[in-house]
Amino acid sequence: MDHGFDLLMVTSTLIFLLAGFVKGVIGLGLPTVAIGLLGLVMTPAKAASLLVVPSLVTNIWQLVAGPGFAPLVRRFWTLLTGFCVGTWMGAGWVGGDAGGSATTLLGVALIAYALLGLSKKRFMVSAQAERRLSPVIGIATGMIAAATGVFVIPAVPYLNALALERDELVQVLGLSFTVSTIALGIVLMNHGIFQLSVAGASSLALLPALAGMFAGQRVRMRVRPETFRTCFFVGILLLGAHLSLRHLF
């Protein structure tokens, strides 16, 4: 019996349970938490391959629950195209972690995400600026996702700055994460990382992710989301600091 493999399976299950719980409470965070914590025990590329199925299913669920799919696609098609282009441009970074560079970059991305989340500043993007920025933000997010497996920087802060209605924001996040997951999954397949055996493990990870999400949705009714968001971002900040610094010592 391979006790190391068994320990990895238990660890992965608990991580996806926690990541799903976070998504259930605040509506996002599953890939960030899962990739961040899995990055402690494996490379970001391997972690991203385990995330493909849980991320795809939960984000499609979030996407179809919203009110207006077609208008959002028409508005954000350049952003979505940018995700795909950026992921393709960063494909050469997938699978490599020489010297821990990808893990360090993941840590830096998590720190940036946490600091933005904890900041009281709220940025606004005008409609004119949106047309210029959307493809650039999409490409940048795709390239970072290819290197780290995390597709929240800079897309999530950018979408938050567009003053969308709450339901629109939740749906466009689901749409963005769905497209990003598919683009990253294709790149991982082309590099031989997301294979049949990994797809099976990724499918199994869907169960704890969904269980955690259902539990988080129940807790959402009893806990102030802002309180939980603060705890979430502090945790992400500490995790990012650990990942970015551990190869220096």
Q: Would you list the SSEs in sequence order as H and E?
A: HHHHHHHHHH
Q: pLDDT average, as an integer?
A: 81
- Class derived from helix and strand content: mainly alpha
Major sheet summary line: none
Give the total of domains.
1
Principal-axis shape equals globular
Task: Give the fraction of residues assigned to helices.
Answer: over 70%
Number of helices, where a helix is a run of at least 4 consecutive DSSP H or I residues? 10
Instruction: Give the strand tally.
Output: 0
Strand fraction equals under 5%
Instruction: Evaluate the radius of gyration.
Output: 17 Å
Uncertain spans, ≥5 residues at pLDDT below 50?
none
Q: Span from first to last CA?
A: 34 Å
Task: Report on this structure.
It is built from 10 helices and no strands. The protein is globular and about 50 Å long. The chain has helices at 3-26, 30-38, 44-64, 69-89, 101-118, 127-148, 155-160, 166-190, 196-220, 225-245. It has one domain (3-248).
Topology:
Blueprint: H1 3-26, H2 30-38, H3 44-64, H4 69-89, H5 101-118, H6 127-148, H7 155-160, H8 166-190, H9 196-220, H10 225-245
Helix pairs in contact: 1-2, 1-9, 2-3, 2-10, 3-8, 3-9, 4-6, 4-8, 5-10
